[in-house]
Amino acid sequence: MKLNSLRGMQDILPEEIHIWHYIEKNARELFEIYNFREIRTPLLEQAELFLRSIGEDTDIVEKEMYVFNDKKGRKVALRPEGTASVVRAYIQNSLFNNPSPQKFYYMGPMFRYERPQKGRFRQFHQIGVESFGISTPTVEAELILMLKQFFERLNIKDLNYEINSLGCKKCRPSYRDNLFIYLNEKVANLCNDCQRRFTRNPLRVLDCKAPNCKNTLKDTPFIIDFLCDDCRMHFLSFQKELELMKIKYVVNPKIVRGLDYYTRTVFEITTTMLGAQNAVAAGGRYDDLVESFGGPKTPAAGFAIGMERVVELCKEITEIEPKRPFVYVAFAGQGMEGEAKKLVNMLRKNGFITETAYENLSLKNQLKRADKLKVEWVIIVGEEEFKKSMYKWKRMKEGTQGEARIEEILKILREGN
RNA sequence: GCGGAUGUAGCUCAAAGGUUAGAGCACUGGACUGUGGCUCCAGGUGCUGCGGGUUCGAAUCCCGUCAUCCGCCCCA
């Protein structure tokens, strides 16, 4: 019987792991420059954490979450996103007692039971950040700027920055009422999905891509026209910040987001290069979430980057060389195998990526293997040279070679590194 | 959850119901016992995704199932 990985879950092979390392390294470096620090939270949490943060009516919770009972019958869930866990950890560890802002980043797998597609998997990876304690839109602006620099580092271009405001506890109810009245007149013309959404969560209707619905909803009122004074000011000064930093953006009143905890600012960064799964990063502000979990009233904002999608873009755009062994140690002649082993250990202690023959191969075959491994240098431990305390070195690309003592060999390798 | 396309060697693909299922690349060994790439030779390259059915006979037709891809939905 052949055992395969579960649907939508894939192996990341050494072949492409270097791209992941490259992206992760850039994220760590950059985020730490902005004083975000890494936090690691469990992959498994009480299911209720996500029900209460993301929202019970959302698709994520309703049909995409991996939920099951553990051996004691507790309802647990694999995390479908990162924010809820970080908020939980922030409260549980009383991190709000530390000076504001508290800034965290994380990277790791998330799980959603979705139908797999290009750029969409059941186990996927996100790099995310969360910033707690500051209510001014300078926080969101900093997040966007940091994202922009992140993508610049990776040489990813042609991204669209779209922003919107969802208002707050004060202004959203009046908008919702208004939208309901408006939609009530048109509901007969909407698609089946939208008719369902209309009763469940009217805001979701705005996101529909069906041509007919789009047309019917041309004149739908938008939330940004119903913002309270505070929210409007917040949104305007957010845009001002973006302009100061020369970030090109588009206000897209249709961005609704699939998680209920967002307030005020939301944003999406999209690309046209990945087909239907076009969001590479998204996030927003969630000023009520910490408090709703029993923490002190704490404004907060964050974003998440879709790792697989960024990897895909990197494959198309940048050439990142995978790591290859640097030196191959070959041997020829009586008793040289042991001497070769000593040399291998020595080179490895000196930090060179070293490979060697593990079986008794002809020198020809050893060189053949070295060639296939694409190593830069071969050191041959040969009987004749060994008598003179020398080794033969060979630079594979040029085919040049010579003899040298060990100190010189190390020097040559260091210079060639 | 809905609609569509596709599953043959590690990879890219042939074989239009009829011999023992093929080609290129890759892989392993040899020609070459102290020198890689080139060439030549030899060779695993395989439950034709899996399970049924139709047929004298199925990679080929039908049904189911699983997987992948595309679209919807949703999102990162």
Task: Explain what you see.
The structure is a single chain. By secondary structure, the protein is an alpha+beta fold. It folds into 2 domains: 14-171 and 227-317, BirA Bifunctional Protein, domain 2, CATH 3.30.930; 327-416, Anticodon-binding domain (Rossmann fold), CATH 3.40.50.800. It has 15 helices and 16 strands. The protein has an 8-stranded mixed β-sheet. Helix 1 runs antiparallel to helix 5. The longest helix has 20 residues, at 14-33. It is elongated. The protein starts with 13 loop residues before the first helix and ends with a helix. The mean pLDDT is 89. The structure holds one RNA strand of 76 nucleotides.
Percentage of residues assigned to helices: 25-40%
What is the approximate shape? elongated
Query: CATH-wise, what's the superfamily of the largest domain?
Result: Bira Bifunctional Protein, Domain 2
Strand content: 15-25%
Please outline the major beta sheet.
8 strands, mixed
Discrete helix count: 15
Number of strands: 16
Number of domains: 2
Key words describing this protein structure:
417 residues; alpha+beta; BirA Bifunctional Protein, domain 2; Rossmann fold; 2 domains; 8-stranded mixed beta sheet; 5-stranded mixed beta sheet; 16 strands; RNA-binding
Blueprint (SSEs and pairs):
Blueprint: H1 14-33, E1 37-38, E2 44-46, H2 47-54, H3 59-64, E3 67-69, E4 75-78, H4 83-92, E5 102-111, E6 123-132, H5 138-153, E7 160-165, H6 172-186, H7 192-200, H8 211-216, H9 229-244, E8 250-251, E9 263-270, E10 279-285, H10 289-292, E11 300-306, H11 307-317, E12 327-332, H12 336-349, E13 354-356, H13 363-372, E14 377-382, H14 383-387, E15 391-395, E16 400-404, H15 406-416
Parallel strand pairs: 1-5, 7-8, 12-13, 12-14
Antiparallel strand pairs: 2-4, 3-4, 5-6, 6-11, 7-9, 9-10, 10-11, 14-15, 15-16
Helix pairs in contact: 1-5, 5-9
The structure holds one RNA strand of 76 nucleotides.
